[in-house]
Amino acid sequence: KGIITNEDKANIQIWMILRILQVYHMRNEVASFVMMSYREFKKLTDDQKVGNYIVWDSGKKKWFISANEYKTKKTYGEKITIVDDKKLSKDLGLFHKINGFGIMFKNSFKTNGGQGTPLNANDLSKLLAKWSKNSLPKRKVGETEDGDPIYKDRSISTTMLAKIFYSDEGGQVKQEIIKSAKARGHDVKTALNVYTATPEEIALKTSS
Length: 208
What we know:
Strand order of the largest sheet: 4-3-2-1-5
Helix content: 40-55%
Shape: globular
Number of helices: 8
Number of strands: 9
Strand content: 15-25%
């Protein structure tokens, strides 16, 4: 068993944040996640559920996310998301093995007796910007009068990551829908709302 340094903790943290964002494309509320057992989660009343939680249900051998503090909370209320991505579930288990239950992400591991202090939304923005600057290749933004390339540091945010992941997953599909809608003579909204059904919606229609 090796000693986990503060640098190791920081690397594990950014890896876990990116894994969650890769699968669920969340906003900055990911910064405030608390990891807990289902037994402790059940003790929380509705009034006490004011944060965002990643919960391990040992009975069902499943992780789930309870989001209670996010941008559109007034519209959607508590959001429960079952973590059905097997790789992410495994990664959360590894993170728990290293860090245990409690506040997941910290803005420093050098304070509070080495325990660190909780990350907040602004801290996450700075953390992602710093990580992208140090870890991602610079992007070319132009050339000098002599023809030499001009490069600029990349600065990644949760919004930019969501665009990247959504485009990777559905960019080609969107292009095909736009093409088909144009050929049929209606807009994309009509194509999606009237002519496109999910597998669950198709199954429901065929079973009724």
